[in-house]
C-alpha cells in the first residue's frame, strides 16, 4: 500500500508531500485553494460571475479582495496579521524588506520552511474562524 501511495504522490508540490498535523490541515487546504484560484475571496468569485463586486467586504478601502489584500493589507485583520508577521519575521528577518507582492509570493510558495508553514496555516485558520474565507 505504501508503495502505491508514494507513486501516486509524484509531481505534487513540496508542501503537500510533507506530513501536516490534523489540527492544521484546514490551513493547508486554504493555501491550496488560494494557489489553485478556487477560493471564496471575491477576486475569484467575480471571475466566475458569482459576485459582481470584487471589493473587499471587510474594510472600507474599496480594494479588490485579492489574496494579497486579504493576507497582508486588509485593515479588518490588522491584529491577526501583526501577530502572524511578528512570528514570521522572527523566523525570517530578511523577509522584512519584501514588498507585499514578494511576501505573498513567499507565503504561497512550495518551499516554505516547515515551522513557517505551520505558522502560516494557523494564520489562515484564524481568518477562516473570522468568516473571511471558506
Automatic annotation (TrEMBL):
Protein name: Uncharacterized protein
Biological classification of the source: Eukaryota, Sar, Stramenopiles, Ochrophyta, Pelagophyceae
Amino acid at each position: 500500500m505504501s508503495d502505491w501511495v508514494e507513486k501516486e504522490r509524484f509531481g505534487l508540490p513540496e508542501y503537500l508531500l510533507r506530513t501536516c498535523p490534523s489540527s492544521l490541515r484546514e490551513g493547508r487546504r486554504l493555501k491550496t485553494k488560494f494557489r489553485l484560484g478556487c477560493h471564496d475571496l471575491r477576486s475569484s468569485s467575480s471571475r466566475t460571475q458569482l459576485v459582481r463586486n470584487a471589493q473587499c467586504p471587510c474594510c472600507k478601502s474599496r480594494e479588490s479582495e485579492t489574496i494579497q489584500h486579504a493576507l497582508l493589507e486588509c485593515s479588518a485583520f490588522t491584529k491577526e496579521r501583526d501577530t502572524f508577521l511578528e512570528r514570521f519575521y522572527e523566523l525570517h528577518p530578511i523577509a522584512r524588506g519584501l514588498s507585499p507582492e514578494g511576501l505573498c509570493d513567499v507565503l504561497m510558495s512550495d518551499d516554505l520552511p516547515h515551522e513557517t508553514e505551520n505558522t502560516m496555516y494557523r494564520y489562515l485558520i484564524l481568518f477562516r474562524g473570522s468568516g473571511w474565507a471558506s
